[in-house]
Design a protein that fits this description.
The protein is mainly alpha-helical. The chain has helices spanning about 10-15, 40-45, 50-70, 75-80, 95-100, 105-110, 110-120, and strands at about 25, 85. The protein has two domains: about 1-90, no CATH class; about 90-120, no CATH class. Helix 6 packs across helix 7 (about 110-120). The two termini are about 15 Å apart.
């Protein structure tokens, strides 16, 4: 089930037909493919408050739709039907161990709290 593995751009992989050239997909949740909403601050601040609220609400709805698209079980099933082997259980610890020596640099650049929050993500 893809719902347990947000972060892999399943719809992009399925729609691009990667299954034609790629045999495996590992649902490791190492990335998230958001769509970014960008607006010029001066232009945005010139809008009526009601229009600003509509834009903010639309951006939040788009963010939720993007998140839900990442969890597309039907697209994941399409990948399986296309012949791709879906690996959803793997040992993450070797990857964590491999970058452990970078902890001081990451903590210096991003702060201990952010690193802790990232590491606490399943």
């Amino acid at each position: 089930m893809a719902a347990g593995w947000p972060g892999k751009p399943i719809p992009t992989i399925a729609n691009s037909r990667f299954y034609e050239v790629q045999k495996y997909i590992t649902l490791d949740a190492h990335t998230f493919a958001p769509v970014v909403f960008v607006a010029n601050r001066a232009m945005f601040e010139q809008l009526d408050p009601a229009d600003q609220a509509v834009l903010i609400a639309a951006a939040k709805a788009a963010a939720e739709a993007t998140w839900q698209a990442q969890l597309d079980d039907k697209k994941l099933e399409d990948l399986r039907k296309g012949g791709m082997e879906v690996i959803d259980k793997f040992d993450r610890q070797p990857f964590v161990d491999a970058i452990k020596s970078l902890d001081p640099e990451f903590e210096k650049r991003f702060g201990k709290d952010l690193i802790a929050a990232i590491r606490s993500t399943p």
